[in-house]
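User: Show me sequence and structure for the first protein, then do the same for the second.

Assistant: Starting with the first protein.
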Amino acid sequence: VQLQACGGGLVQAGGSLRLSCAASGRTFSSYAMGWFRQAPGKEREFVAAIRRSGGWAYYADSVKGRFTISRDNTKNTVYLQMNSLKPEDTAVYYCAATASGSYYSGATYDYWGQGTLVTVSS
């Protein structure tokens, strides 16, 4: 599976962005999908994940209520809608695919996209 993330950019605090991650191959629906982020000088952290069917989603406490993960298996795409953005959301955001049932650790993900930069100005 190859993943291509896009949609990052510069936005003011309080604004919104929607990230997309397109997957190649015909097995997209076999993978749970996740979003992670890495801010400068910090370790990569979990942001959100969604199960294969899209029925369940999981979020980091820091983004709960502001971010929404979704997927469209007919388009092989996963999305991250980010609202009420804060300067601390500034990071490179990565999408990833996992065949496991564990979503919070990056170590359980099999495939990664190249990342897209989100910058939130105060």
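Switching to the second protein now.
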Amino acid sequence: QVQLVESGGDLVQPGGSLRLSCAASGFNLEYYAIGWFRQAPGKGREGLLCISNSDSSTYYLESVKGRFTISRDNAKNTVYLQMNSLKPEDTAVYYCAAQRTSYCSNVRSYAYWGQGTQVTVSP
């Protein structure tokens, strides 16, 4: 059974950093593109960025470029989202998701989703 579990969400002050983890089970995520999304209260889910099986990153959201990076540790079957210079508008539930392909495609192409982890940015 394919499963993705996010962790690492927390309350952090503006300007702070946080690293989220996405642990996979039931499949080897090293062969697939993995993306991060978020959903803020009262808003739709938005794609942030994606990492391909060759570790190439694709950004879906311009406003996180230069602040968020994505990486993977295939030995741990885990993908990470490093978030720096956090702002109150980054407050949201963060999700990881997997595509069925090795390359990053559009945000509608994700087949498997985690349950999300809450990130709150507040003084």
